Amino acid sequence: MKSKKKLQRILLPLALTLILIGIGVAVWLAASGAGKNRHAEIKDAANTNFPLRVDFVDVGQGDGILIRCGNETIVIDGGERDYAGAFVAYLRNEKVSDISCYIASHPHNDHIGAAPAVFSAFNVHMLMTTAFSELNTPTNVSYEELLTAVEAERDCEVLFVKAGDTFTFGELSLQIFAPVSESTNHNDMSIVVKATYGDVSFLFTGDAEFESEQAMLDAGFDLRADVLKVGHHGSSSSTTPAFFRAVDPAAAVISCGKDNVYGHPHREVLQMFENAGISVYRTDRDGTVTICSDGVDLFVRRSY
């Protein structure tokens, strides 16, 4: 009898300790997002008839993104000037007429080179861009052509966005996470935006590099997203392990040109995704990548 009571005295505290540890782990997971209800896999789409559709268009070594949610159409970048005709043709083929918002992520040709053609071909109701100080204002041709195109659109509202801004387009919400502050590195002036529909979210990062990523982490933004548009075409100058853990994506999309001279995407970035078991889609291998959602699940279709 004594041995039984002794055993109970040992086991009871042990059981209570294990219960407390379990509760502590559950609380930590909830707080950190590490145990969030993430999709175990990205399903192949039998069709693309979903309330939310995001097309990562194959524009070679550049970014060109089309987002449609209900009656709202949002375009991010469009690729180099040489891809302007192909990008506009893609939008027309997708029956785009009015563009609710055009987001110029940052003033580099591989992102906004096609912008003037987009403004010429469609009714663009809003432009989101970043404000630059006088000494840091871009002087490249693509940026100047974008400004000229916007001036010709009298009905286009121009917004200079910054970290912390929020917008709503129908059932789609947009949160701006960067730029947090001005940088002489225009990649780190990229607009980083999280788009959320229902329980599903996408994080579009432009060419944001380490400086911008750290600023977003320091600001304490909720960076978690189901789909990550990988920064700077998969360059090792972006996607630090800390930033990657904070996003904790179920899938990643890399927009880059086939056999590009930069070697994008870089091996160490791909290895990080592979080690974490993340589904990676690449426009250089998969062509245009379309990810759709009903607000709960994700469905993907590749053009190749």
Overview features:
304 residues; alpha/beta; Metallo-beta-lactamase, Chain A; 7-stranded mixed beta sheet; 9 helices
General description of the model:
The protein is an alpha/beta fold. It folds into two domains: 1-32; 40-302, Metallo-beta-lactamase, Chain A (4-Layer Sandwich). The protein is 31% helix and 25% strand. The protein has helices at 2-32, 84-93, 109-112, 115-121, 141-152, 210-219, 241-247, 267-275, 283-286; strands at residues 43-44, 52-56, 64-69, 72-77, 98-99, 101-103, 123-124, 126-129, 157-160, 166-169, 172-178, 192-197, 200-204, 227-229, 251-254, 279-282, 289-293, 298-302. The strands form three sheets. It has a nine-stranded mixed sheet. A seven-stranded mixed sheet has the order 10-11-12-13-14-15-16. A hairpin with a 4-residue loop joins strand 17 and strand 18 (298-302). The radius of gyration is 22 Å and the shape is globular. The model is unreliable at 17-37 (pLDDT under 50).
How would you summarize the topology of this molecule?
Blueprint: H1 2-32, E1 43-44, E2 52-56, E3 64-69, E4 72-77, H2 84-93, E5 98-99, E6 101-103, H3 109-112, H4 115-121, E7 123-124, E8 126-129, H5 141-152, E9 157-160, E10 166-169, E11 172-178, E12 192-197, E13 200-204, H6 210-219, E14 227-229, H7 241-247, E15 251-254, H8 267-275, E16 279-282, H9 283-286, E17 289-293, E18 298-302
Parallel strand pairs: 1-18, 4-6, 5-7, 6-8, 8-9, 13-14, 14-15, 15-16
Antiparallel strand pairs: 2-3, 2-17, 3-4, 10-11, 11-12, 12-13, 17-18
Helix pairs in contact: 2-4, 4-5
